[in-house]
Amino acid sequence: MTETDAVLRAVRERVDPTAAERERLRTVAERLVERAEDAVDERGLDADVVRVGSTARGTWVRGDRDIDVFVRFPPSLSRDELETHGLAVGNAVLPNGHEEYAEHPYVKGEFEGYDVDLVPCYAVESARDIRSAVDRTPFHTEYLEARLDDDLAADVRLCKQFLKGIGAYGSDLKTEGFSGYLTELLVLEYDGFEALLATAADWQPPVELDPAGHANASFDDPLVVVDPTDPERNVAAVVSAANVARFQHYARRFREEPRESYFFASPRDPLDAEGVRAALDERGTRALAVRFDDDSLLDLVEDQRYPQLRRSLDGLVRGLEERGFEVVRAATWADETAVLFCELSVAALPAVERHRGPPVHVGGHASGFYEKYADDPDVYGPYIEGERYVVERERDVRSAAAFAEEELASVALGHAVERLVAADDYTVLADAEVAALAAEFGREFAAYFDPRP
């Protein structure tokens, strides 16, 4: 047995569901489906009930306790009717559940110790005919059930755990990683986990895969896996370039030095306030944080909140750099509050800034620049440097903190963040003050100051 074989066997012993788990899941899922079918019949509805997701396909990892049940209605129903009937069935099956909203509402709850999503969808002829995004999900299950044998399903579990261990698993917009369905397609495409790693180690993005050979759309993503049930959809569209690179990095590392630790990440010890201050002192950098604690932002689901926070962080970084404040790195985090964090090499600037004008030979434009500043007592110059007019004028904002306090509204922000900034409903923390955030974001600070691939 090779070292790789030994590691993979050890991982399988930890991630493969036990026989008792499988039997328990099977019996509970059967009762759940039967209960949903009874709810459909009691209401005289024209619908069928199907299980989807990893527990239906045998690719779930030990300890997962999720069952996904879809109720399929005729396409002749209106969207309002679909939602009404779907919620009625869902609330009957999961009376202690609650309604959540994606493209349309569904019911989420608990059944005999399992977390259940009960989702209404349309029973369309093919994934090309979908009327809502969830309509294609049953086709995913049909496609994979026909192609995944026990060995490939076991390799899918290995791959899922590997992606979890390296922090690249999850198609939510916070993670921007690999979904379960994408993982299944990749293992299937390369006929196993080890073969996938061997190929991924040498990927040259953009990587394009078309399992069904039917793509009829173009995609601008670092990883493209055309949905075999929908020729116009990239299953990997959400995967960030960083997570593609992360997968490549660890694929190489594992092939060079197989280790079980790649599959099971150790949680970081959180930094306390003193640790944050010490890290900044050691690095000799300056810190700036903008904190929001308004419910209008924090109550957004993550798939809405994080894109807005990232857009706002990009705007803040660009605004700082355009004004001469050099940003080393930046991050955004959210929990009970939301934070835009920037680490800067320069956070304070002199009272004057250089402003270069046009070349002297550019006629009227050059003359206009000269005349604008010639009699201004608050500038130095104009003088000539090389072939251009130059002036030195008073700088509007001299510190990064002042910029965040006075001019944050001038940069591109997410809509919810923009509203809070317009209402002056945020707090700016500078340098040692950011250490106060450690109570809430200690693990995030630990990961920030000890970055890994």
Automatic annotation (TrEMBL):
One of its GO terms (molecular function) is CCA tRNA nucleotidyltransferase activity. CDD domains: NT_2-5OAS_ClassI-CCAase (cd05400). This is CCA-adding enzyme. Its EC number is 2.7.7.72. The gene is cca. Gene3D superfamilies: Archaeal tRNA CCA-adding enzyme catalytic domain, Beta Polymerase, domain 2, CCA tRNA nucleotidyltransferase, domain 2, Poly(A) polymerase predicted RNA binding domain. Homodimer. ATP binds at residues 54, 57, 140, 160, 169. Catalyzes the addition and repair of the essential 3'-terminal CCA sequence in tRNAs without using a nucleic acid template. Adds these three nucleotides in the order of C, C, and A to the tRNA nucleotide-73, using CTP and ATP as substrates and producing inorganic pyrophosphate. tRNA 3'-terminal CCA addition is required both for tRNA processing and repair. Also involved in tRNA surveillance by mediating tandem CCA addition to generate a CCACCA at the 3' terminus of unstable tRNAs. While stable tRNAs receive only 3'-terminal CCA, unstable tRNAs are marked with CCACCA and rapidly degraded. CTP binds at residues 54, 57, 140, 160, 169. It comes from the Archaea. It comes from Halarchaeum rubridurum. It is an enzyme of class 2 (transferase). Its cofactor is Mg(2+).
